[in-house]
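Quick one, probably user error.
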């Protein structure tokens, strides 16, 4: 993928956001290939307890709900709803 500077016509040969010759900003930065998302790592990064994610990874929804309740001191209903929504999000 190459881009030409709109001002001086220089080919874009670096990953810099501006032309190395005239310093004009390129119109757009090259698209970066999105890194494959590990849903478990993403969930932990979003603040979910790693132990809870480990339970879900093992297919143990009940265990995950238990950890959620212990971590956030919620009712069983709240914990189940939260874990259900996380499971649904991870299936996307
Ligand atoms: Zn230029």
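Nope, works fine. Designed sequence:
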């Amino acid at each position: 993928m190459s881009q030409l500077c709109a001002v001086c016509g220089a080919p874009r040969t670096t990953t810099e956001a501006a032309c190395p010759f005239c310093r004009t900003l390129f119109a757009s930065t090259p698209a970066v290939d999105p890194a494959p998302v590990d849903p478990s790592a993403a969930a932990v990064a979003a603040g979910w307890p790693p132990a809870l994610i480990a339970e879900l990874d093992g297919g143990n929804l009940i265990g995950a709900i238990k950890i959620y309740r212990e971590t956030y001191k919620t009712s069983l209903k709240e914990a189940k709803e939260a874990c259900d929504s996380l499971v649904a999000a991870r299936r996307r």
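The chain is about 45% helix and 0% strand.
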